[in-house]
Amino acid sequence: MSARYPVLFVLALLTSGGLPAQMRTDVPAHAFDIILGRPSLNSITASVLSYENLEGYLEYHVDREIYNSRTPVVRLTEGTPVEIRLDSLRPDARYYYRLRYRTVGDSQPFWQAEEATFRTQRKPGSAFRFTVQADSALSDKVSTDLYAHTLDNAAAARPDFHIELGRAFTPDPRSSSSQYLAQRYYFGALCRSAPLFLASAPEKFFPNPRSDGFYGWEWGDALFVVISPEGILSGTMLDGIRRTLEDSHAPLKFVFMHSRPGDTRKGREFHQLMVKQRVNTVFHGHDHLFAKEEVDGVIYQSVPQPGNPRAPSGHLAVSVKGNAVHVKFVRTETRLALASLRFDR
Prior knowledge:
alpha+beta, Immunoglobulin-like, Purple Acid Phosphatase, chain A, domain 2, 6-stranded mixed beta sheet, globular
C-alpha cells in the first residue's frame, strides 16, 4: 500500500456514549406519510402509512395537469404500512403524483393530498444529484428541529434519491417501533419525492431494496453499492461485492457504509478490493464529521451528523456530470455550502 496523504476538512466532533436514556420520538400529528423506494427504469414503490382507517389510490403522470394514470384503490389500515407499486413507467422521466384518499365507508369524493414528484432511473450520460446523511438516531443528544431543517434543505435541492448510511435507529427494543414511526415522519418531508435507500432498514416500515448484507443499483454513469452496518465483511460477502463491482460497466463507482473498516486483515482486504475495482469514493458515517482522505486513489468521505446542535451539522449533496463529481457539505444552520470537494475521474 502506498504512503497516505490525508486531506482532512474536520468540521464537527461528537463524543460518544452509551444508549440514550430517552428517544426523541414525539412528532406532530399527521394523517399519513409516504416514503418512496426501489426506483427502476420503469417502476417505483410508495410505502403509505396512514394513522386512521382510510382507503385510497395514487394518481400520476409526466404531465402534472393531466394525471391520467392511477393505481387500484387499496385499504390503508391504521398503523400498517402499505406498499403501492407503480409500473409501466417511462425510463429517465420525471413524474408527478398525489394520493387520493377518504375514510373507509365514506361515499364522498376522494380528498386530494399534496402533489409530490419522482424520477425513474437515469440513462447513462445523464447528469444528476443525490443526497447523503448518516448517524441520525433520534437520541436525547439530537435537536429534532435541526434534523428536520436538514431534511428540508436536502428536499430543496430536488435530489434524485437520498441515502442514509446507518444508525438511523438505536438497538433499543423499548422504543424501536416509535423510532421507525418518527423517522418516517422526518424522512417523509424529503423522501415522498426522493426515493430513500437505507443501509439498514426494518423491512415492514421502509420500502428498501432486498439486502444480503449489501445491495446495488446503477443510475446514470454510476454504480451504487450500499453495505449494511450489520453485515460482516466475510470472504463470501466480499466476493459478492467484488462480483457486483466487476459486472458493472459504469465509469463511476460509489460505495456506502456506516463505518470505515479499520487497519485489520479484513479492512486491508476491503481497501484492496476498492483499489482493484477502481472505486471512486467510499462514503461512510460513524465519525460524525465532514472529512476526506484519499488512499491509493480511493477517496474515503466521512459524512456529518444531521441533527447535532453542538457542532456543524448537515448533509452532503453530490452532483454527478460525466466523470466529474462535486461533493458539497450543506450546513443546516446557514443552508450554505460550508465546504466542498471536487474530483474528476
